[in-house]
């Protein structure tokens, strides 16, 4: 009987001939026994948590502003890849076959600073007219923006501490992230936002239930009060329709 085994199957029979390539997307190394290094390694996964949050918000909120923000992060990543292959600067520590890409600029630093500065602009410019007299509202803004900025600092320091990037690579990545966040927020706020009312009327947007919340000053409060009123109305209706015992 003719042997029809594929080259890949034959290679698996002889493990010595296989060069195993790890998925380095989430693989972060740190010095064994170094608790601070372990902390920085965990914090290096922050961009993936932010990305998962974006996907969740888009699926459940389907708001054009969130989609535009997320699209900006994707463009920011593409820009980082292009710059890395144009500059071609190596990372400070060679990790063999784990990382084949270049280190200038740092993609982590560029991502987190893009995200944090965009959030800062969003609260400072787009939401500046909402509940200005509310101490609680102002406190929440400070906490959210401050947390984002602190996260960016921790991730940036961690990339240098773990020798994934030089200080210059992290600084350049952060600067590019800040600049591109400024440009992208201007594009969304001044160019795309006026087009959102027309976009949501398209059949595709209606099918996907994509919405525009630009004119709603406080989306969270609006959804809370609307849901509560609807639940009460349905409760009263069910009580009226319920047959008397």
From TrEMBL:
Annotated catalysed reactions: a di-trans,poly-cis-dolichyl diphosphate + H2O = a di-trans,poly-cis-dolichyl phosphate + phosphate + H(+)
GO cellular component, one term: endoplasmic reticulum membrane
Chief place of localization: endoplasmic reticulum
GO biological processes: lipid biosynthetic process; protein N-linked glycosylation
Transmembrane segments: 39-60, 67-87, 107-127, 139-162, 168-188
Subcellular location: Endoplasmic reticulum membrane
Residue span, Phosphatidic acid phosphatase type 2/haloperoxidase domain: 66-185
Molecular function in Gene Ontology: dolichyldiphosphatase activity
EC number: 3.6.1.43
KW Transmembrane helix (keyword) present: yes
Pathway the protein contributes to: Protein modification; protein glycosylation
Entry similarity comment: Belongs to the dolichyldiphosphatase family.
Function per UniProt: Required for efficient N-glycosylation. Necessary for maintaining optimal levels of dolichol-linked oligosaccharides. Hydrolyzes dolichyl pyrophosphate at a very high rate and dolichyl monophosphate at a much lower rate. Does not act on phosphatidate.
Name listed for the protein in its UniProt record: Dolichyldiphosphatase
Species of provenance: Euphydryas editha
Lineage: Eukaryota, Metazoa, Ecdysozoa, Arthropoda, Hexapoda
């Amino acid at each position: 009987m003719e042997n029809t085994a594929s080259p890949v199957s034959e290679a698996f029979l002889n493990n010595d001939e296989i060069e195993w390539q790890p998925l380095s997307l989430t693989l972060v190394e740190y010095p064994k026994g170094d608790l601070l290094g372990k902390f920085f390694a965990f914090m290096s996964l922050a961009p993936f948590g932010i990305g998962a949050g974006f996907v969740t918000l888009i699926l459940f909120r389907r708001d054009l502003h969130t989609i535009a923000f997320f699209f900006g992060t994707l463009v920011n990543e593409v820009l980082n890849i292009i710059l890395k292959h144009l500059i071609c600067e190596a990372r400070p520590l060679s990790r063999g076959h784990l990382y084949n890409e270049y280190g200038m600029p740092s993609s982590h630093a560029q991502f987190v600073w893009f995200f944090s500065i965009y959030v800062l602009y969003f609260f400072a410019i787009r939401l500046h007219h909402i509940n200005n007299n509310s101490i609680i509202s102002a406190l929440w803004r400070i906490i959210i923006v401050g947390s984002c900025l602190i996260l960016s600092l921790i991730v940036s320091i961690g990339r240098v501490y773990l020798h994934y990037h030089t200080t210059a690579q992290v600084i350049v990545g952060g600067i590019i992230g800040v600049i591109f966040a400024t440009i992208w927020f201007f594009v969304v706020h001044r160019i795309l936002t006026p087009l959102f009312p027309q976009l949501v009327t398209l059949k595709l947007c209606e099918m996907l239930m994509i919405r525009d919340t630009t004119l709603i000053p406080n989306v969270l409060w609006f959804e809370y009060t609307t849901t509560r009123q609807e639940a009460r109305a349905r409760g009263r209706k069910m009580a009226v329709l319920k047959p008397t015992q």
